[in-house]
Amino acid sequence: MTESSKTQVFSREAVLELASQNPEKYFISIHENVYDVTDFLDEHPGGEEALKEYQIKDKFKDGTESFEDVGHSMDARDMMKKYQVGVLEHKKEQKHVSEHDRTQKPKEGVSFSFLVVPALLLAAVGIAYQLFLNRS
């Protein structure tokens, strides 16, 4: 899609209808975006089967979890933009999630607050030990 074009909003039913009207096309959905990856099948580093697995044909399929499990690079995420044909409409009960939130991976590792409690306990034991030694 070009920057100047408006983003088309699809219901899941409309995506299924689009796919049935264009059986030669390969439509997939990732992070509530709709992509036509027909021209990318031969170029996909994981092979065309990885994309065909989530092709929207007779029923709606969401490839988000699989896409994130593979751990695609930022370059791959940027490349997706040229294949985007629209976005899925939000249902009223869904909360709005920004593009930034959808593309962020959960932080891994030890948080600072996890280390504070043991450090404070160690300091308290050290002080108590010093006080005990000074009284003896």
Automatic annotation (TrEMBL):
UniProt family annotation: Belongs to the cytochrome b5 family.
Domain Cytochrome b5 heme-binding: 7-89
Keywords of the record: Heme, Iron, Membrane, Metal-binding, Transmembrane, Transmembrane helix
Identification of the protein by name: Cytochrome b5 heme-binding domain-containing protein
Molecular function in Gene Ontology: heme binding; metal ion binding
Keyword field contains Heme: yes
TM segment ranges: 112-132
Lineage: superkingdom: Eukaryota
InterPro entries: Cyt_B5-like_heme/steroid-bd, Cyt_B5-like_heme/steroid_sf, Cyt_B5_heme-BS, Cytochrome_b5
Keyword Membrane listed: yes
Listed GO CC annotations: membrane
